[in-house]
TrEMBL record:
Entry keyword Transferase: yes
Domain HTH marR-type: 3-145
Organism classification: Bacteria, Pseudomonadati, Pseudomonadota, Alphaproteobacteria, Hyphomicrobiales
Descriptive protein name: Helix-turn-helix domain-containing GNAT family N-acetyltransferase
Protein keywords: Transferase
Family matches, as InterPro entries: Acyl_CoA_acyltransferase (IPR016181), GNAT_dom (IPR000182), HTH_MarR-typ (IPR000835), NAT_camello-type (IPR050769), WH-like_DNA-bd_sf (IPR036388), WH_DNA-bd_sf (IPR036390)
SUPFAM superfamilies tied to this protein: Acyl-CoA N-acyltransferases (Nat), Winged helix' DNA-binding domain
Family matches, as SMART domains: HTH_MARR
GO molecular function: DNA-binding transcription factor activity; N-acetyltransferase activity
Superkingdom, natural source: Bacteria
Record domain N-acetyltransferase: where: 170-313
C-alpha cells in the first residue's frame, strides 16, 4: 500500500514538473521556430552560448556538455560554419582534433542573443513587484541547486601583487588576446599601453593595485584597481588566459579587487566593458555589479556596444 502511495505521489510530481517545463518554455518563446525572434534555433543558440563562455572546445565536448546527438552537433556546426558563426582549427594539444570557436561575427551574434534573452526575462520580471521577483529568483536557485549541486573546483592558482615585468606582459597579452579572439586592431593595444603607463607613472599603493594570477609560477590573468576621484574606484583590464579559464580565476580577481576597494575606503566601483565579453559580464553580474549605461561605438576597428557597470561598496 505504501508503495502504491509513493508511486502515485511520484507520478503527480513528474506531471507537475513536466507541466512547469511546458509553461516556462512557452513563456520564454523557447519553442518558437527561431529562439527569441533571432535567426537561430534553440539548439543553435545553445551551441553559440556554450562557445561564447568556453572560448573554444571540441565537438565531442559540446556533445557531452549539451547532451546532444553527435551527428546533430556535427551538422549544426557545419551549418554555423557556412554562416561564418563558428570556425574550426586543429588543436594545439592534438593536431588530429579540431577545436571549435566563435568568429567575430559569432561573438556579435552571441551578444545579440544575450541581449534578447535579458530583455525577454526583464520584461517578465517587470510585471511583478519586488517581493514576487525575489521569490521567483529564490525558487529557481532552489531548483538548480537541488537538481545539480555545484561541484567544487580546485583553485590551482594564486594571486599576487604585480612586480617588475608584469605590466609589459599585461600589454602584450591583452593586445594579442583581443586581436585573436575578437578581431580588434592594434589601437586597442595602444590604449592598454596608455592605461598601464599612467598606472605606473602615478601608482599610489595605498589606493591602487594590480594583481597577477599565477598557475605553477606562470602568469595567467590580471586585473587593475585604480582611483577615479571622489571615493570612486575603477576596475580595469580584467584578463584570463584561455588555458586558465574554468578554474575560477576571473571571479577570484574581481572579488579581490572589490574586497581591496572596500578596505581602501572607496564607496563605489565602476568599470567599462563591451557587450560581446559575455564571460566577463557574467562575473560582474554575479559579484553584484549592475549595468547602468550602454552606448554603441566604433573602436579598435569594429562596431561595439560599450557598457558602464557600477557597484556600491
Amino acid at each position: 500500500m505504501k508503495s502504491n502511495s509513493f508511486d502515485t505521489m511520484l507520478e503527480s510530481q513528474v506531471a507537475a514538473i513536466r507541466g512547469f517545463s511546458r509553461f516556462y518554455t512557452r513563456k520564454l518563446g523557447i519553442i518558437e521556430p527561431k529562439l527569441l525572434h533571432s535567426p537561430f534555433t534553440l539548439q543553435e543558440a545553445r551551441i553559440i552560448y556554450e562557445l561564447a563562455h568556453r572560448e573554444n572546445c571540441t565537438a565531442t565536448e559540446l556533445v557531452r556538455e549539451l547532451d546532444l546527438d553527435a551527428g546533430f552537433v556535427s551538422r549544426t556546426l557545419q551549418a554555423l560554419q557556412r554562416r561564418q558563426i563558428v570556425t574550426r582549427k586543429p588543436s594545439k594539444a592534438d593536431k588530429r582534433v579540431n577545436e571549435v570557436a566563435l568568429t567575430a561575427k559569432g561573438r556579435t551574434a552571441a551578444a545579440d542573443l544575450d541581449r534578447r534573452s535579458r530583455s525577454e526575462v526583464g520584461a517578465l520580471l517587470k510585471q511583478m513587484d519586488g517581493d514576487r521577483r525575489a521569490a521567483v529568483v529564490r525558487a529557481m536557485g532552489t531548483i538548480e541547486q537541488s537538481l545539480e549541486p555545484p561541484a567544487e573546483k580546485p583553485a590551482g592558482f594564486l594571486l599576487r601583487s604585480h612586480r617588475v615585468g608584469d605590466i609589459g606582459w599585461v600589454i602584450s597579452r591583452q593586445g594579442r588576446a583581443y586581436a585573436e579572439e575578437y578581431g580588434w586592431d592594434i589601437s586597442y593595444e595602444a590604449l592598454v599601453a596608455e592605461i598601464c603607463a599612467q598606472f605606473l607613472r602615478s601608482f599610489d599603493p595605498a589606493r591602487e593595485q594590480c594583481w597577477i594570477a599565477e598557475v605553477d609560477g606562470e602568469p595567467v590573468g590580471s586585473i587593475f584597481l585604480v582611483k577615479a576621484g571622489d571615493g570612486l574606484a575603477k576596475l580595469r583590464l580584467l584578463l584570463v588566459e584561455e588555458k586558465a579559464r574554468g578554474l575560477g580565476v576571473g571571479r577570484a580577481l574581481v572579488e579581490q579587487c572589490i574586497r581591496s576597494a572596500r578596505e581602501m575606503g572607496y564607496t563605489k566601483m565602476t568599470l567599462w566593458t563591451q557587450s560581446i565579453l559575455l564571460a566577463a559580464r557574467g562575473i560582474y553580474a554575479r559579484t553584484g555589479f549592475r549595468r547602468v549605461k550602454e552606448e554603441k561605438h566604433h573602436s579598435f576597428g569594429v562596431d561595439l556596444v560599450g557598457e558602464t557597470w557600477e557597484l556600491d561598496l
